[in-house]
Amino acid sequence: MIFTISNIRKFYTQSVLFKNAIQLTKDRFTNLKRGSYAVLNANDVDYFKKLLGDNNFITGEEVKAYNEDWLKTVCGSSKYVLKPKTTEQVSEILKYCYKHNIAVSIQGGNTGLVGGSVPVFDEVILSTSAMNKIISFNKLSGVLVCEAGCVLENLMNYVQNKGFIMPFDLGAKGTCQIGGNLATNAGGLRLIKYGSLQGSVLGLQAVLADGQVLDCLSTLKKDNTGYHLKHMFIGSEGTLGVITKVAIHCPNAPKFVNAAFIGLKSFDKVLSFFSLIRKEFGGSLSSFELMDSVAITSVQKNIGLKCPIDDNLEFYVLLELSADNNFINTSIQEVLEQALAEEIIVDATVGDQPSVVQNIWKIRENIPESFLRYGYVYKYDITLPHELFYEIVPEIRKRLEILDVKAVSGYGHLGDGNLHLNVATNEHSDKIVSAIEPYVYEWTTKCKGSISAEHGIGLLKTKYLKYSKSDIEVDLMKKLKNTFDPKKILNPYKIFPQDDIN
Fold first, then answer.
1. Pfam families annotated for this entry (predicted)?
2. Quick one: DSSP state of residue 283?
């Protein structure tokens, strides 16, 4: 079974541990205080029902799934979910909420790791899942225009059938939505070749807190007319406005894809191999994924997948090349032979058939689920300089060696410096959290890294924002928030520590 968010959710749903462990966010974080927002009354309910219709106004037991994040770490107490189908409906919702001081939690696919897409208290939930239409695709320019609720995998399949690819790929692609991808500035597996998501987004449409529609849905690749306001919403995590439509540039699909799985003895060898690959293949390099031995052992033990090469090495790399000619097939074999002769690598397997490439990727894709099989996972998504990419992992192992920990692993996108630090245990423990936080963020800051590589700040990292942003940066961010959303009704309690923004 390949890792998907739906698989993870199924695992959690079946877990007695997590059925009992979920706790309301307001009870778990007692320092948080509900803002002075209105409580929905009968008139409010009637308004939203009339606007959206009964099928798109959700209440009762069905709301529970929208209140919880998929890792079951945070849980709100909202009673209502609004599912608009058009930008105009989003505009009417926010216009009403702004006038009546109703707090709104913005939710896409709800696949984040930092509690950014679920309510903290009783905020009304605005789900974009019903806004899932593909508006247009221009085969000449490669520009896709779609609504924010489109699931990433559906978009990937759509453009692939036309000979193109989405410029990013995520493990959560079967559930995550393009609007949420933009709102968190998602990274993923292809960043090393196609760059960050910001560079691929040509335009977007967003609804502001007071209901005004900001239409920056340009499909032009060059537009040098003042401020590019689209960038205000990419990475804003729903705190400045609700993204409703997106224009994104899609590259032509490569004609040939080649994947290799490589074993190495040390992290120094990994860096040497990375340098060699970058030198030899440049623009053909589409993924360079690092996995440690703990991750490989976990996949073999908990998922039942066999490592395709020697499984007694310290590090493994999944390398993917893509190009419009098949020189990469011969070239990668020659480079691997060279690396073997120079003792940079120890073992390798390579393939260019789609089924072989898919099988090679299964190891990497199943790592997150394999750790969840232990019971509970503390996940840290950080960016570090390449040469320091793995150093935090043994440091955390030392700090946790006297505690009941099943596995401490580091894996992720070495190509862009994004480390996924995972600590697997049987159940949640405050002692383990205290041993990791804020140490991991202090260490990251000393290394000139970022405390969040892909998932944003959300709720869970608000008190650590200072580790990656200077005082002047945070001050400017607050001013933007207060300008775009002076009543602070959009995704309250997220990004900023509560005392700093209220």
1. FAD-oxidase_C, FAD_binding_4
2. G
Residues in Cβ contact with 323 at an 8 Å cutoff, skipping those fewer than 6 apart: 254, 255, 256, 284
Q: Where are the domains of the chain?
A: 5-127, 134-249, 256-447
Q: Are strands 256-264 and 347-351 parallel, antiparallel or unpaired?
A: antiparallel
Query: Can you tell me which residue has the tokens 């991991």?
Result: 440
How do residues 376-408 score in pLDDT, each as one tens digit?
999 999 999 999 999 999 999 999 999 999 999
Is the pLDDT reported for residue 6 higher than 60? no
136 pairs with which residues across the strands?
A: 145
The Cα–Cα gap between 39 and 153 comes to 37
Q: At what angle do helices 87-100 and 42-52 cross, to 10 degrees?
A: 170
Q: Is 396 helix (H, G, I), strand (E, B) or coil?
A: helix
Q: What are the b/e assignments for 110-146, b being 16+ CB within 10 Å? A: bbbbbbbbbbbbbbbbbbbbbbbeeeebeeeebbbbb
Distances (CA, A) of 87 to 55, 91, 130, 241: 18, 6, 11, 12
- Asked if the model's pLDDT at residue 435 lies above 90, the reply is yes
Cβ neighbour number for residue 361 with a 10 Å cutoff: 19
Structure confidence at residue 502 as a pLDDT band (50, 70, 90): very low
Where does 5-127 sit in CATH, by number? 3.30.43.10
Q: For domain 134-249, which architecture applies?
A: 2-Layer Sandwich (3.30)
Cα first-last separation, the chain:
45
